[in-house]
Amino acid sequence: MTALRLALGLTVALGLGVSAVAAADKPDPVADAKAFQAFFVKKFPKVAFDDFVNGPYSMNEDMRRQWEEKEQFPPYEFALEAGKEMFSKPFKNGKTYADCFPNGGIGIRQTYPAFDATEGKVITLELALNRCREANGEQPYSYVKDEMASLTAYMAYTSRGKRFDIKIPDDPRALQAYENGKEYFYTRRGQLNFSCASCHVQSPGERIRAEILAPALGILNAMPIYRSEWSGMGTISRRFVTCNSQTRAVPLEPQSDEYRNLEYYLSYVSNGLPVSGPGARP
């Protein structure tokens, strides 16, 4: 066992109360998800399970009141309208996004990311949308700009209320992708020496400057999100890149294997929580 793996196992054990030896030596995503969810439920006994998808608004009553008022005229509404129009508009060859996805792309957000057995890698919804565009002769969209956020906002909206149902097939490559995502989540990096878990497992509910940190449980269920800080919409890719920048680490390329595996891990341990996207955050 490498020093990194040992350190990782200890971090997981300290954070989630599970056996370091068991976590490091025998990967068990089902047990991981159970321990992960139990940790947050115990840490925040007043937060209803489904409410974890509302991030900081589940942690602070004042922020929640402001958010509920804002939701009467949600700031992401423009993206929903744009995404719906983009989704139904035919490509130059006459086909649409609906031709690329099961159920015509409606109500499927809760099944992404998924593991592709042919490719042996994790496929996110953002990646699948761009592959759909390229397969139909269209240029791919930026993973961090408005078009991708609008498309995923509309697709998330059609899945609202459906519970995350991420699968890890009986394939060692899928299990390794999940383990790699888990390792990325708990590994410290950057000048601030923070891991993803430093903020979203150890410190949810606490403030960094004016921002209340969201719990890792359910953090992707609200994606994409409108952020006042951005004055616009952002994708999961944009959030990962921003988090790396905020810890003064070198951000990876959007949709790199590392980010896709991270999304796979974070989504899997939130199985059972409902899709709430698109969301809004300060």
Automatic annotation (TrEMBL):
Quote the gene name from the UniProt entry. Answer: soxA
What PROSITE patterns does the record tag this protein with? CYTC
Would you say which domain of life the source belongs to? Bacteria
Catalyses which reaction(s): L-cysteinyl-[SoxY protein] + thiosulfate + 2 Fe(III)-[cytochrome c] = S-sulfosulfanyl-L-cysteinyl-[SoxY protein] + 2 Fe(II)-[cytochrome c] + 2 H(+); S-sulfanyl-L-cysteinyl-[SoxY protein] + thiosulfate + 2 Fe(III)-[cytochrome c] = S-(2-sulfodisulfanyl)-L-cysteinyl-[SoxY protein] + 2 Fe(II)-[cytochrome c] + 2 H(+)
Name this protein carries in UniProt: SoxAX cytochrome complex subunit A
Cytochrome c domain mapped to chain residues: 176-282
Key words, A-Z: Electron transport, Heme, Iron, Metal-binding, Periplasm, Signal, Transferase, Transport
Leader peptide range in chain numbering: 1-23
The coiled-coil regions, if any, are: none
Upper classification of the source organism reads:
Bacteria, Pseudomonadati, Pseudomonadota, Alphaproteobacteria, Hyphomicrobiales
Assembly information from the UniProt record: Heterodimer of SoxA and SoxX.
